[in-house]
Amino acid sequence: MGKTQSKFTEESSIVIKIFKKNNNNKSPFYLTPSSSLRYKKRKSANESFKQISSSITTTSSSSSYSNNKSNSIVSSVNSLLNEDHIFKYMGGRKFLIFEDARYLLPFDDDEHARLQLQHFLYRHMWNGNFSSPVHELLQNSNATVLDIGCSTGAWTLDMATDYPFSKFIGVDIFPIYPLEIRPKNVEFEMANILNGLPFDDGTFDFIFMRSMNLSFTSQEWENVVMKELMRVVKPGGWIEIMERDPWITGVGPATDKCNKTFADELKTRYNVDPFISPHISSYMHSTQKIEKIFHEEKKMIIGEARDNLSKVCLDNYKWFRRNCKGSIGTKIENFDKMLDESFNEFKDKKAYETSHRFFAMKKIEDGNSLN
Ligand SMILES: C[S@@+](CC[C@H](N)C(=O)[O-])C[C@H]1O[C@@H](n2cnc3c(N)ncnc32)[C@H](O)[C@@H]1O
């Protein structure tokens, strides 16, 4: 081990060792879609990943401030946050290159502030945090709920406050969720869904996943993510996926050009199709674990022509596009100019932004196994 690594505690030295083993000097941004062989490799890598996760998982029982283990976990994670092998700076912004993350947004305070804003925008727009018929269940019983790709934990924490008798677990590929201060009914855990979630079959009553359209290829959505969701939800439990359509149409030619440029870059460089909402139902059905899928969509005016809310929507949209500069934007000529020309078109427009919720119950007669 090198000099820098020797300062790490036992937990974080495991992390670094495993990370180097899996790194292969490849940028995760150029990974190809998972073949079954690759998926098998990931499965074995996942054993190592589980060790990492368990070493920095934080639970309510270990969250006491006077608890030495908790403090050492926090300091080891803080040390990790400075580690070059985990982050890469592109266009002056910090991006995660840990494990096989294909995450095209920065991993810094600015983007996390945007995600917080977006959480409250969505909650307001939808008049609630979810659409599945689980309110009674969460309110009255000891339900277990999973939030995949929980990021800062905004949804998990909000829900845990609303439903104090249920237990909430947020997972993310890297710990940006609160490590110390959180309600008693919340746990956060580090997990990469593409490697398989570290939970037994049929663990959860309700699983929620939102805004993951830049994180998976279409093949991963269908062959890995959906199957993993169906595996860890209980028979009779609910799965809800929420995605926003990434392109705003009807604004003007500069915005159309911007949409197309983003789409082409995402496809050719990352094999990602951010317009995932038209496919979610068929991917869910292909698991054969559900009978009926419910779909709701909301259109929200975005622009400067209407009210404060539509202006905040526009701010969030601009913020999102700008934050893609270090990843998607690096190969696009005159990226800033392209964005400015598009943003100028919103001035007198009432464009719409559409978001979707797909929710379905896992069939009861199927049992827990996907085999
Ligand atoms: C756009 S953010 C959405 C955050 C949150 N779901 C929300 O709606 O506010 C996507 C999150 O997914 C996480 N993520 C990306 N790939 C992942 C993976 N393979 N497994 C688990 N989390 C992942 C990222 O780290 C990031 O925090």
Automatic annotation (TrEMBL):
Q: List, alphabetically, the SUPFAM superfamilies matched.
A: S-adenosyl-L-methionine-dependent methyltransferases (SSF53335)
Q: Which Gene3D superfamilies match?
A: Vaccinia Virus protein VP39 (3.40.50.150)
The record's annotation in Pfam families points to: Methyltransf_25
Q: Which InterPro entries does UniProt cross-reference here?
A: Methyltransf_25, SAM-dependent_MTases_sf
Q: Which residues form the Methyltransferase domain?
A: 145-237
Give the PANTHER family listed for this entry: METHYLTRANSFERASE
Descriptive protein name: Methyltransferase domain-containing protein
What is the species listed in this Swiss-Prot or TrEMBL entry?
Diversispora epigaea
